[in-house]
UniProtKB/TrEMBL annotation:
The UniProt record lists the keyword Amino-acid biosynthesis: no
GO cellular component terms, A-Z: extracellular region; lysosome
The protein, known as: Gamma-interferon-inducible lysosomal thiol reductase
Subunit: Dimer; disulfide-linked.
GO biological process terms held by the UniProt record: immune system process
C-alpha cells in the first residue's frame, strides 16, 4: 500500500556562543520526509506513524476508484424524491470524495408523442417539464447539479423551486450588482430548501 503525505520538515539552525550556526541532529531515519508516509514500516522507523495516520485518514486512497451510483428517476415521483432527499444526497454529502453520482431524469418516461412533448411521463406533463429542467441543470452545472436537484426535490413544489434558476431580470441584476443578487437569491433558497 502506497501512502504519501505532503509533510513539511523544518530544520532549525541554532547559533552557538561564537555566532556560528550549528544544525540539530537528524532524526534516526534513513528516508527523506517525502517518503515517511509511504508505508507503515517507514512511518514506524521514522517515528511519524501517528502523523501519517492522521493525514491519510482525511484523504481517500487514490488507487481505489470511487463508487459509481447512477440513478434513473422522475422529478415528481414520490419514491424518487424520498430516495434523493433522504438517502442519496446525505450519503453523497458525507462520502463525495469516494462516490461518483450520475443522475438520469426521465427514468420511467416513454417515447410516446403527446401534443406538448415527444415524451410521456408517469406523472404527466408537469413531470416531463421537471425532468427537462433537471436534465438541463445536469448538463449545465455538472458538479453542482446534485445540490440544485436536491434543493428542488426537497421543496414542497419541485417546479416552483426551479424558477429562481434563471431570468432576464436576474441577468440584469447580476450585471449591475452581482453581490446583491447572490445575497438575495441565497435568502430565497434558504426559504425554499
Amino acid at each position: 500500500m502506497k501512502l504519501s503525505a505532503p509533510l513539511a520538515l523544518l530544520f532549525l539552525l541554532c547559533a552557538d556562543g561564537s555566532g556560528s550556526a550549528v544544525s540539530h541532529p537528524k532524526p534516526p531515519c534513513r528516508y527523506p520526509p517525502s517518503q515517511w508516509c509511504r508505508s507503515l514500516e517507514i512511518a514506524i522507523e521514522c517515528k511519524v506513524q501517528k502523523q501519517c495516520m492522521e493525514v491519510n485518514a482525511t484523504r481517500p486512497n487514490q488507487a481505489v476508484p470511487p463508487v459509481s451510483v447512477t440513478l434513473y428517476y422522475e422529478s415528481l415521483c414520490p419514491a424518487c424524491r424520498v430516495f434523493i432527499t433522504q438517502q442519496l444526497f446525505p450519503t453523497w454529502t458525507m462520502l463525495q470524495d469516494i462516490m461518483a453520482v450520475t443522475l438520469v431524469p426521465y427514468g420511467n418516461a416513454k417515447e410516446l408523442p403527446s401534443p406538448n412533448s415527444p415524451f410521456t411521463c408517469q406523472h404527466g406533463e408537469p413531470e416531463c417539464r421537471g425532468n427537462l429542467i433537471e436534465a438541463c441543470i445536469i448538463h449545465l452545472t455538472r458538479h453542482s447539479s446534485l445540490q440544485i436537484i436536491y434543493c428542488m426535490e426537497s421543496a414542497a413544489d419541485v417546479l416552483n423551486a426551479a424558477k429562481p434558476e434563471y431570468s432576464e431580470e436576474n441577468e440584469d441584476k447580476a450585471m449591475s450588482s452581482l453581490f446583491n443578487l447572490v445575497c438575495q437569491l441565497y435568502k430565497v433558497r434558504t426559504c425554499l430548501c
